[in-house]
Write a structure and sequence with these properties.
CATH class: Alpha Beta
Number of helices: 10
Radius of gyration: 18 Å
Strand content: 15-25%
Number of strands: 8
Strand order of the largest sheet: 2-1-3-4-6-7
Shape: globular
Structural class: alpha/beta
Helix content: 25-40%
Order of helices and strands: EHEHHHHEHEEHEEHEHH
Largest sheet: 6 strands, mixed
Number of domains: 1
């Protein structure tokens, strides 16, 4: 039995995605191997980095922006300097790939003909989507020999769309979790093949929820790939009611904080700035 040839499409984000990808790399086995990957900028294709930042100013307080800035300085600047001295950088997706000799294919458009041609050369069995800011087109969805799988940090079909960890907190959910599903052209749709829930953590923040759902995600992806190489994946009927969200508005951000909810606190550094799960 040959290994599944897996390709990852994600974004370059310092806090959680490097932990997920490191877990996947460390748990490669006789069932799957990562043969390549692409990192995208965190803003969507029709947006700029300025738009990405403005979205967050709608829902962060000035204090939360200050905390996030401190976290970013620690990860993006501090460890970038240390990396030049040979220190391992746990907060960079690029560094995880380089350290493990995983072939990176660069692109600004995952649906471009040139990019798809490069992917076909790798004879990919599974494409894993981990929080990429671009939608998969029909040609990319049909490219792998087996399937495109998306890992979504909510209990689908509840909280389809973006800012899932924020909406779980805003809506007062009693449980959080992650879903892995096959991909179709409709966003966060397709057949659910893996799902796990846990209780909402004590004193939750958006950042704490993101940590826990990404931790669940890492485990679920390994379990799903191991199973897929042995037999077909079972389709799961989710008990959750469907909802869809865009980025929160400024008014919703104010309402969020009036409820006593928080995006991030300095206490979240223990989870957010941990080197692994």
């Amino acid at each position: 039995m040959s290994k599944l040839r897996v390709f990852i499409v994600s974004q370059e984000e310092p806090f959680y995605i490097p932990k997920v990808i490191r877990y996947l790399v460390e748990h490669q086995n006789e069932n799957f191997e990562i043969v390549g990957a692409s990192r995208l900028q965190p803003h969507r294709k029709n947006k700029t980095m300025k738009d990405w930042l403005l979205e967050r100013t709608q829902i962060y307080t000035y204090w939360e922006l200050f905390i996030t800035t401190c976290f970013f300085i620690y990860c993006k600047i501090g460890f970038k300097i240390l990396a030049k001295m040979g220190v391992d950088n746990p907060f960079s997706v690029k560094h995880v790939y380089a350290k493990n000799a995983i072939n990176e294919i660069e692109t600004n458009d995952i649906n471009s003909p040139f990019y798809l041609t490069k992917l076909r050369e790798l004879k990919i069995d599974v494409v894993l989507s981990i929080s990429p800011p671009q939608l998969f087109g029909k040609d990319l969805l049909n490219l792998p020999n087996k399937v495109c799988l998306n890992a979504h940090g909510t209990l689908l079909p509840r909280h389809r769309g973006v800012f899932g960890s924020w909406w779980m907190l805003f809506n007062g959910d009693k449980e959080i979790g992650t879903t892995i599903h096959t991909m179709v052209e409709k966003l966060d749709a397709g057949e659910i093949v893996w799902q796990k829930e846990i209780p909402m953590p004590a004193q939750p923040t958006q950042y704490a929820i993101a940590y826990h759902t990404k931790k669940i995600m890492a485990v679920g992806l390994v379990e799903t790939l191991n199973k897929l190489n042995v037999k077909s994946l079972d389709v799961i009927k989710s008990p959750y009611q469907e909802s869809y969200h865009r980025a929160p508005t400024k008014e919703q951000g104010r309402s969020f904080h009036k409820k006593g909810l928080r995006v991030v606190t300095f206490k979240n550094a223990k989870l957010t700035l941990s080197k692994s799960f």
